[in-house]
Amino acid sequence: MKDILFLKRYVESHPDNRMAWYLLGKEYEATGQTGKANYCFNQAGDVYEAFEHTQIPAKWLLEAAEKERQLIEKQRKRITRRRWTLIALMLLLICGISGAPGADPTDLQLALEVNQPQKPSEQPMIYIVGEKDGADGAWQQSIASHMIQGNPGQQAVVLELEQRGSWLLWSHQPQLLGELKQQEKSVTSSSERTYDVQVFDPAVCDCTPDIPRATRSYIAKWAVQMEEIQSLRSGVIGYQKQNGKQPAQMTDLTDSYPRNVMAGQTPNMRNLFEPLRKSQVIRGQGKLRTETVKEKQAIDRENPTLTVNMSPASADMIFQEPYKIVIDKQNHRLAVVSGRVIWRSYEVGLGGDQTPEGNFEISEKVKNPNGKSNGEFGSRGMTLSDTLYAIHGTNEPSSIGKDESHGCIRMRQADVEELFDLVPLGTKVIIKKGILPDDLVKAQQPFKVRPQQGQNQTNPHKVYKWLD
Fold this sequence. Notes:
Elements (H helix, E strand, L loop, with lengths): L1 H12 L4 H13 L3 H11 L1 H8 L4 H38 L29 E6 L7 H10 L7 E10 L2 E3 L5 E13 L2 E10 L13 H31 L6 H4 L13 H12 L2 E4 L8 H10 L2 E4 L3 H7 L5 E5 L4 E6 L2 E7 L10 E10 L12 E5 L5 E3 L16 E2 L2 H10 L5 E5 L36
Parallel strand pairs: 1-2, 3-10, 6-7, 8-15, 13-14
Antiparallel strand pairs: 2-3, 2-4, 4-5, 8-9, 9-10, 11-12, 11-15, 12-13
Helix pairs in contact: 1-2, 2-3, 7-9
């Protein structure tokens, strides 16, 4: 019956699709509705003749019908996605996210795609802590203090990042330390706010996280979006440092070699470009006290802000500075860091004493150096401060984790391609000993951008002689 209803709706909107009429007729025939089946077969015309009066193998018939059914299902899903997209846009307009009275024009309430669209007030406030930060439960007071100035009823989710010394390890699946819901209840003639705190710590209680699937999905997509913001922000800063001015448009960042500041973009990065270009500060959500509103407006005139969905302290933590690369010669690690957060950490091959220590920056990014993707330098190369040292791929993957190069930093192909997409030209590179933990930090799905149309990042006119 479900297939009949769906096919009936489909032929009503696609009356010329004879295969759909034939399939609907077969459904009616299977349920004993002969009259309706014959009507559908008449509409199917020569399709019915081909299937019913020609010797066609049954297997071929089933495959053809199944392909048509899959096509119809795909079209139905596409229509459903468009419907939800329109609903989401309507909600955004109703809520006035980008044009709310009194809002800073560069503020951006990030709207992430979830199973069903959510209003900003329904999105959980993200609060990030390290293991040491959350050890004494001080985060509860911090969240409560923040939420007093926030939206009544909004949920706050505490994400605990693994901590190694002073470093925090970025994760797309961070541990849920707890949640806090702000509630309102009437007390005589006044309204009193109360807080429902849930701690997910076996040492504190015998409890398990009760986080809805939509919230978990939101957190996973939120983590990816934070990487997109940080990568784009680093690119804008790198461009400004190199050219003495801000990029006027996204294509300034995604130019061809040697001006390929960034390897490409994502649809979300394209939407974020203008707000990020205008803003100098990334700030977490949170309403300020009345007496500080004028002060904030004065500050924002000098330092426009981009507002993201997390607590102010968390935004300060992960957007403390643009991306930089740290290489540890002692444990053969290369990390992409910002402040105390390690966003990625890879195992690399080095050259022992032949790999220099000190401060560098990425001065060149090239795809398929020397015209090969499988040569001695692999599919990607990034020159360090116009020297003969570089971060590049290798055709000797067994050398990763060892000191077998002549000074360069070797990476596995998947790792170097992600790094190439993640960090822009001008990224600072620090090479030292004993500064990174041994942990490898990776995402389930590597960070990946799509090159701008026509963006050529190869350099066939140069023979690279890096100290492999």
